[in-house]
Every structure is written in structure tokens, then in C-alpha cells.
Design a protein that fits this description.
Length: about 210
């Protein structure tokens, strides 16, 4: 991992590490595969998390912990999509909108989780130099990936909300390539959200009790 943490090049005065570059390119590929509802989105996401774990470990412990969770959720996503892929007419999962109950549960989990993780980071300062943004990204990433694993269109919105904090935080920490990639993430998220939104209209409508407005 020492070789991966060596400098690849300098971009706009920022020193880009090989691990930062490769990990984020894989993350970008995973998002593109997720847009296409391709099962390989999850192994690629796992590989991205593994490399970025090495990039952050020892410097940004909170971010490294986030990547460890990313790898666990990627395994869950692989299992969930592999189990559900036969339900769609095209051999892939069928995107759907979350019910209001699911939305409420995810918002509540994100809020409570962010507070809990931020307090943990504040209690152990070595885990993060900026507890609240790190906690927000940590928990937001888990919620977004969970929603993706369940085939919910809302996962794209969750990623946008994570990007709003992730972009400036990466630049502030010297991970410029991560910041640039997150900008590209934003464009992909908008296109992917439109595609999943349209596909969700082709599938069965949710039950009235939990249907979105």
C-alpha cells in the first residue's frame, strides 16, 4: 500500500496520490454501473473502498472507517441485487420509489446516526479533525448505499446530499482528485436519477398506504 500512497502527479498545486486517484476512479465506475443496474457495481465499489481505506488510514481515521463500512454494505448490495435481479423483465432490479415509511426511517436513521457518530468523533479527536462533516458523510454514504441496494430512486438524492459536503471536505483535506471526482459524481447522479425515475414508472406502483405523493 506504500506504493499506492505515493504521489502520481500534481494538479492545480494539489498532490494527487495513486490510491486517491485509483480508488475514486473505481468509485466513479461503480456509480456508472449502478446507473445501468449492473450487478458488478458492487464488487467495483468494494474494490474502491478497499483502496481508499488504505489512502485514508492513519491520516483520516473517520474517513477510513467510512470506507470499511462501504465495503460491508457493498457485500450486502451484491447479495440483495443478486437475489432480486430476476424480478425485473430485463434481468436487472426494478427501480422503485421508497414508501413514506421507508423515507421516514432513512431520514431518522441518518439524523440520529450523524449525531451519534459526530459525538463519538468528538469524544475521540484522533478519529476526525472535523467531526460533524465526517459523521454526515459517513452516515449519508451508508444510507445512500442501503437505498441503492434496495433499488430505491431516493438513493440518488442521498448521494447528492453527501456530495454537497464531500466536495469541499476533500479539497480541504488535500484529496483534490476526490473532490474533482465528486463533481463528476454530481453530474452522473442527475442523469442516473432521471433514468431510475423513468424506469420506476414502468414498474408496479407502490401500495397506497406507503405511496409517494
Amino acid at each position: 500500500m506504500n506504493a499506492l500512497n505515493s504521489e502520481a502527479f500534481v494538479l492545480f498545486g494539489q498532490h494527487i496520490l495513486w490510491s486517491d486517484m485509483i480508488g475514486n476512479i473505481l468509485g466513479l465506475a461503480a456509480l456508472a454501473l449502478g446507473w445501468r443496474r449492473n450487478l458488478w457495481s458492487w464488487p467495483v465499489q468494494f474494490a474502491s473502498g478497499l483502496i481508499l481505506f488504505g489512502a485514508f488510514y492513519g491520516h483520516l481515521t473517520g474517513s477510513a472507517g467510512k470506507q470499511a463500512v462501504v465495503m460491508v454494505v457493498a457485500l450486502y448490495g451484491w447479495w440483495q441485487w443478486n437475489r432480486s435481479k430476476g424480478e425485473g423483465t430485463d434481468g436487472h432490479i426494478t427501480p422503485r420509489f421508497a414508501t413514506w415509511r421507508e423515507r421516514g426511517a432513512m431520514v431518522a436513521a441518518a439524523a440520529a446516526g450523524t449525531v451519534a457518530v459526530a459525538l463519538l468523533f468528538k469524544a475521540y479527536p484522533s478519529l476526525s479533525w472535523d467531526p460533524w462533516p465526517d459523521a454526515y458523510i459517513f452516515v449519508g454514504t451508508v444510507v445512500a448505499m442501503y437505498a441503492q441496494a434496495r433499488g430505491m430512486v431516493e438513493f440518488w438524492i442521498a448521494w447528492l446530499l453527501v456530495d454537497l459536503v464531500g466536495v469541499p471536505l476533500n479539497f480541504a483535506n488535500g484529496y483534490a482528485f476526490s473532490g474533482f471526482v465528486y463533481v463528476i459524481y454530481g453530474a452522473l447522479v442527475l442523469w442516473g436519477m432521471r433514468d431510475w425515475w423513468l424506469r420506476s414508472r414502468q414498474g408496479p406502483r407502490p401500495a397506497l398506504e406507503g405511496a409517494p405523493a
